[in-house]
Design goal:
This protein has 659 residues and is α+β, with helices and mostly antiparallel strands. It is 17% helix and 22% strand. Strands 1, 2, 3, 4, 5, 6, 7, 18, 19, 22 and 23 form an eleven-stranded mixed beta sheet that branches. A four-stranded antiparallel beta sheet has the order 10-17-12-13, with no helix packed on it.
Length: 659
């Protein structure tokens, strides 16, 4: 047998104080650990980088394990016989927060964690499991324990790179992973002369070398003492806020992180098909041979990139050749995939204009359809296995066009529109930022302008229903909603900048996060990066486009919520970093919320060219009616649920605008 799976349920308890959810009834929460033992010689695992170097047990198998959590109906008959796997983001559980508008928790148990009950009322069995093997335990994160690769008992070494950017002054030491929740790859030697440490103010600036005697592989202890550490970087003068510090060093003991793919594949396959595990423990999602009919996966940001790579690398086919996920929905993944099945991989990093810019999470292919990369001559696509490819509903926000090269999901390397893959749809959530908590408003002080609070969770609910219908009975979802080159709604930043209004104190960005052909070494496709930092060929640049805007600065294409269709502000997917911390760089994935003036007098006082609320709507009653009409239009297109249309009207009635 290639695979042994053992499921240990350590927690079984009522969910949300026994609350019932419509006809589905009450839910229960299961949690514990899944242990795997796999044959490293099997072709089903041979694609995992360094699997041949992983420690084996006395039976010659490689062992690893993951946390898991399941929320399921107490009465199986009440459920819809569908798994929704929420691919965790850095160990954090997000589906209830973004589908149920619930209070976030990594151990959901109370009524507030059920939110509006959407997923429960639909009858889903919601599954979480670890996949990122370099996460440290803590704060309830779902983690995975994977082996370290060794060469016949000796340490494996190789060049790797870390990047540090701090937000506040006074920081003198950091883990080599740059955070406190991820395992650091230790330096093979703590002799600083064997490493290269540089600093620069902005990503495009020349690197300035930091002398080898001006820093140490060390950390500041709790008592203030400085202790040598192969897993930390110590800079006595302190890290300057916003500056980019880059450390290239010889690391040791890589983790076999590619097992994150096989672990998810094998767990979902087990939950779908098997009655019992390898020790005879019953499958918690099957009774008397009856169990789940379909499995879907949703992931946001990092975990959306994980899903794109999972499918591209062929892991949606289980060890018996069966389709694993019938449908997937990567959310705010942009054009990227996750860097995991590599030696010394760092799957928590992703490229932005100023932060982690050169880490390789964005490389061809970007689109679900097969295209040709005119810069390298390669031809490829994410969906290329018709027998096991899932249906895909890909969603992203304005922020991904600016920082995560989202246009490459639906254009080729030259910026030309490409047709949808027959099994994929792409939806641009107009005007929204990467992460807007449905229970929170704009944040002040995290960037130059107030952050963008635009809530798009209602769109996620409607599109999950569409994905289920597509998979269940072949009902095709609505057509993709993206900016296009052929109708000039996908443009270069300078074109949109010429239309963007001259709002006092607001400067439109010159360009999004650019992407050039990179060279990571000859064996990059096999999972080994030899060139750090990678070489960039500035003669070969991918066309990264952004959505065109109207005279209010609001994007004209995409899937527009009622709050965008009938706006009270200009919503953008871009913002700038705060003063004193690289203020001329984009503020990552944070957008802006730029309110309209209430009256003409207010508008004239500030010199704002955008019409005031009074001029636009005249009265609150008219504003509410327009919101209701916009919401109903989306309902008719199957892009909004009736219950959410009612919610938009309720919110509109609470807005403080002109009477």
């Amino acid at each position: 047998m290639d695979t042994q799976i053992r499921i240990n349920i350590s927690t079984r308890e009522s969910f949300a104080d026994g609350m019932t959810f419509g006809d589905v009834g009450a839910y229960e929460r299961l949690a514990g650990e899944v242990a795997f033992a796999i044959d490293p010689e099997s072709p089903h695992y041979s694609m995992v980088v360094d699997i041949e170097n992983a420690t084996r047990n006395e039976d010659g198998l490689v062992e690893f394990a993951t946390d898991f959590t399941i929320l399921k109906p107490v009465e199986r008959a009440g459920g819809n016989r569908r798994i929704l796997h929420d691919v965790n983001n850095r160990g954090n559980l997000r589906a209830l927060q973004f589908f149920n508008d619930a209070v976030h928790s990594n151990a959901p148990s109370s009524p507030e964690h059920a939110g509006n009950g959407f997923l429960m009322r639909r009858g889903y069995s919601i599954v979480w499991s670890g996949w990122q093997g370099d996460l440290l335990p803590g704060e309830g994160r779902q983690t995975m324990r994977v082996p370290t690769a060794r060469d016949n008992g000796s340490a494996i070494t190789g060049v790797t790179r870390s990047e540090f950017i701090v937000a506040d002054p006074g920081v003198m030491s950091l883990p080599l992973s740059s955070n406190d929740y991820t395992i650091s790859y230790e330096a093979a030697s703590i002799e600083t002369a064997q490493a290269t440490f540089t600093v620069r103010a902005y990503e495009t600036d020349l690197r300035q070398a930091i002398a080898s005697d001006a820093w140490r592989f060390a950390r500041v202890g709790d008592d203030g003492s400085v202790v040598d550490s192969a897993a930390d970087c110590y800079l006595p003068e302190g890290f300057k806020p916003g500056w980019i510090y880059e450390l290239v060093y010889e690391a040791k003991n890589p983790l076999v992180l590619g097992l994150g793919f096989t672990g998810l594949r094998d767990l979902i396959s087990f939950l779908l098909h098997d009655d019992r595990d390898s020790d005879g423990t019953p499958n918690p999602l099957r009774d008397d041979g009856a169990g789940m009919e379909r499995a879907y996966a949703w992931g946001r940001s990092q975990s959306g990139r994980f899903l794109r790579e999972f499918v591209y690398q062929g892991y949606n086919s289980d060890t018996k050749g069966r389709r694993v996920f019938d449908g997937i929905s990567p959310h705010v993944a942009g054009g990227g995939r996750v860097m995991i099945n590599y030696r010394f991989a760092q799957p928590g990093r992703h490229s932005r204009q100023h932060v982690d810019h050169l880490f390789p999470c964005d490389h061809f292919p970007f689109a679900y359809s097969t295209t040709t990369d005119h810069l390298t001559g390669k031809t490829d696509g994410l969906l290329k296995r018709p027998e096991t490819d899932p249906f895909v509903i890909h969603t992203h926000t304005s922020a991904e066009y600016w920082e995560r090269r989202a246009s490459l999901v639906h254009t080729d390397s030259l910026g030309n529109d490409i047709p949808d893959h027959e099994r994929a749809r792409v939806f641009f959530f107009t005007g929204s930022q990467h992460n807007a908590d449905p229970l929170a408003g704009p944040k002040i002080g995290v960037a130059r302008h107030p952050s963008n609070p635009l809530n798009t969770t209602p769109l996620l609910r409607a599109l999950l229903n569409a994905l289920d219908a597509w998979s269940t009975d072949g009902t095709a979802p609505p057509d993709s909603r993206v900016p296009r080159r052929d109708d000039e709604t996908a443009v270069e930043a300078s074109v949109a900048g010429n239309v963007f209004p001259a709002i006092p104190g607001v400067v439109h960005p010159d360009h999004p996060n650019r992407l050039f052909v990179q060279d990571h070494g000859p064996d990059f496709d096999a999972g080994f990066m030899a060139i750090e930092p990678p070489a960039e060929d500035h003669a070969r640049e991918y066309a990264v486009l952004i959505p065109q805007v109207d005279s209010d600065g609001i994007e004209v294409s995409g899937l527009r919520t009622p709050q965008v269709e009938v706006p009270l502000a200009t919503f953008t997917g871009w913002n700038y970093r705060v003063d004193g911390s690289a203020p001329n760089a984009l503020a990552g994935l944070t957008g802006s919320h730029l309110l309209f003036a209430a009256t003409e007098a207010d508008r004239e006082k500030t010199g704002d060219p955008r019409p005031s609320l009074k001029q636009r709507y005249g009265s609150k009653g008219r504003y509410v009616r327009l919101i209701a009409l916009a919401a109903q239009h989306l309902v008719e297109q199957r892009l909004l649920l009736e219950e959410d249309a009612d919610r938009y009207v309720e919110i509109a009635m609470q807005e403080r605008i002109v009477k």
